[in-house]
Amino acid sequence: MRRRRLLRSTVGVTTTGTLGAVYTDGGIDSGGGDAAGDDTAVQRRDDGSGPVDARSPSELTLIAHRGFAGENPENTVTAARVAASESVPADGGGTTSRRADIIEIDVVPTADNDVVVFHDANLSGRDGGSRGLTDATGVVWETETATVTSAEVLGSGDTVPRLSTLLDVVPPDVGVNVELKNPGKYDLRFAEKLSDSALADRAAAWQPFVDRVVEVLDEHDNEFLCSSFYEGALAAMRNASSYAVAPILWESVGDGLAIAREHDAAAVHAPMKLIAGTPFHDTALTAGVDLVAEAHADGRDVNVWTVETWYQADRLAAAGVDGIAADYSSLLPRATDASGSGGRP
Fold first, then answer.
1. 73-122, pLDDT tens digit by residue?
2. Pick from 160, 224, 289, 303: CA 20 to 30 A from residue 253's CA?
3. 180-210 per-residue burial string, b: 16 or more CB within 10 A, e: under 16
4. pLDDT per residue over 215-234, tens digit each?
């Protein structure tokens, strides 16, 4: 089967067909926005008068957020293996699940400087809540590797894996987005464009951890992209390798585009609230800047987080985004095959 092309562009990237990906952690705003503008965008896509980049949901790149975290224990070997499994046909001709084009994972160091796949800073909790993410306690980068990798995730029987262990189960034709979460420090600069001096300082803080990540990636044949909320992490990755990078936007389109241009990013990754022409768009945050149009003009993909329903996917596709991050493998229909079959029943 012909390999799916994951990115429209390879801006500043020396490898072929390098993928873009997305950060996907909450922040859903399904209300507000301009419903009339949304209807217009969908109508224009369907009648052919809309943006040239408008597409159907089946054409979107499907990114498995933490290995489809709604179906599997997040960021585990099981999640990666299942997300990379082939689509399962349904009786109606559609699919009950679709294979991920890209698997998104998060990486942090242990106290022993090993790279493990984990999203949070603390092993036991999440965002101050009472839910225990694992049965262990402690800050990951202050905890020895043996304790971290024996911590059970969400009572699933799966434990926190090393990066190398998880990548071993991902077939080479499935892309992997490695989000650089934290280098083992507290004094980081979140989602902002840094001055030259501040960037050099923050890149130096990230460099040892990023170098260890690159060593692991170099041992595998997948296409990789390294993304982060932190510009210092992207600069460190550029210093260490030719892997594609992507900034993760929070609320500033201007900062996100500036960081992407500074580091020749292959993609930008944005929450739904930054996508114009959708009912999720917060005009107060974008100040009249169309992120999709600007990024595409620069030759970069736009991938969006976090998408939970077919309605959201359809509106985002009409607005011209390239990929979505999802917790569920059944969110998107499969691409129509040569015989004309496929899609949502």
1. 999 999 999 999 977 664 455 556 899 999 999 999 999 999 999 999 99
2. 224
3. bbbbbeeebbebebbeeeebeebbebbbebb
4. 999 999 999 999 999 999 99
CB atoms within 10 A of CB 339: 6
Per-residue pLDDT, 28: 36
Parse the chain into domains and list their residue ranges.
Answer: 35-326
Residue 84 falls in which region: left (phi positive, over 0), alpha (psi -120 to 50) or beta: alpha
Note whether 343 and 333 are within 8 A (CB).
Answer: yes
Rounded-to-integer distance, Cα 229 and Cα 197, Å: 18
Q: Smallest Cα–Cα separation from 116: which of 139, 138, 141, 134?
A: 141
Annotate 129-151 with DSSP letters as a single string. Answer: -S--SBS--SBGGGS-HHHHTTP
- Asked if 55 and 48 count as a contact pair (C-beta separation under 8 A), the reply is no
**Identity of the residue numbered 118:** F
CB contact at 8 A, 297 and 39: no
Alpha-carbon distance 10 to 299, whole Å? Answer: 8
Q: What is the pLDDT of residue 16?
A: 31
Torsion of CA 153, 101, 82, 333, to 10 degrees: 110
Give the span between the Cα atoms of 335 and 95, in whole angstroms: 10
pLDDT value for 341: 37
Report the alpha-carbon angle 259-264-269, nearest 5.
55
pLDDT for the residue 125 = 73
pLDDT per position as a tens digit, 277-288:
999 999 999 999
Give, as one character, the DSSP assignment of residue 293.
H
Please name the residue ranges forming H helices in the chain: 35-47, 77-83, 145-148, 163-167, 196-217, 231-240, 253-262, 283-286, 291-297, 310-318
Would you say 273 and 267 are in contact if contact means Cβ atoms under 8 Å apart? no
pLDDT of 63 higher than 90: yes
Bridge partners of 244, per DSSP, are 225
For 19, half-sphere exposure in the C-beta direction (CA atoms, 13 angstrom radius) is: 27
CATH architecture of 35-326: Alpha-Beta Barrel (3.20)
Question: Could you give the angle at the alpha carbon of 184 between the alpha carbons of 119 and 123, nearest 5°?
Answer: 40
